[in-house]
Amino acid sequence: GYYYRQGDKVLGSGYRKASIPVARSLCADCGRTCSVLPACLAPRRWYPWWLQALALQLVLSGGSLKNSARWLDVDRRTVGRWRAWLNDRAEAFAFHLRSQFPALGRMPSFSSFWLRCLADIGLAAAMDQICQQGVSVP
Question: What residues contact residue 15 under an 8 Å CB cut-off, 6+ apart?
Answer without folding.
Answer: 7, 8, 40
